Please model this.
Amino acid sequence: AQSVTQLGSHVSVSEGALVLLRCNYSSSVPPYLFWYVQYPNQGLQLLLKYTSAATLVKGINGFEAEFKKSETSFHLTKPSAHMSDAAEYFCALDSWGKLQFGAGTQVVVTP
Amino acid sequence: DTGVSQDPRHKITKRGQNVTFRCDPISEHNRLYWYRQTLGQGPEFLTYFQNEAQLEKSRLLSDRFSAERPKGSFSTLEIQRTEQGDSAMYLCASSTGTDSYEQYFGPGTRLTVT
Model:
C-alpha cells in the first residue's frame, strides 16, 4: 500500500535556524515524491520533486530534500529560516497518477 | 502565464442545498484533478479526468457528488443535498499527464455548510 507519514504536526523554529521537516513513505514501486507549501486560505505551491534522478533535490525559496531509499525518507530542509517560511508543508507521493498527501506540518517562525 | 483558477473562492450554503464549483486548468494540461481538504489534514483525492474522460473516482465521492469536464477544458464539481460534513476546501489541480506527474493547484473553493 502507498502511504506518506509526516513526523510532527507542528514545528517551531527561530529565524535564521535550520528548518527540518520529516517525511517517510511506503511504496511498492519506485516513488515520485513531492513537497508542497500552503499559505493560509491558498492552494498548494510545489516546492520540489523527486523523480528518480538525483537524490538531493533543490527547490524554490532555498529548500532542498534528500531521497534516501534505505530509510524510505524524503526530509525537507532549509539552512536558515525566514519569517516568510511560516506556512503548512505537505509531503506527497504519486500513486498511479494521483497524489497521496501526508497530514502536513505547520511551521511557525519566531523572531 | 495563467495558473489554475477556481470559482467561487468561498461558498456558504444551507444544509440540503446544491452547490457547484468550477475549475479552469492550465490551458495545455489534459489531466484535471479534484481534491478535498478538511481542517488540519492533507488533501484527499476525489476524482480525475484525462481530457473529458473521468478515469477514477475515490470511495470518498458519494453519490451526492458528481464531476464533469465537458470538451476536456474546464471542470465542474456538484454536491447535491449538502451536509455539514461536506464543509471543506475543494482543490483543483491540473497536469500534463507526463513530466513526472507534477500537479499545479488552484487557490481552492472553501465550502461552509450551515
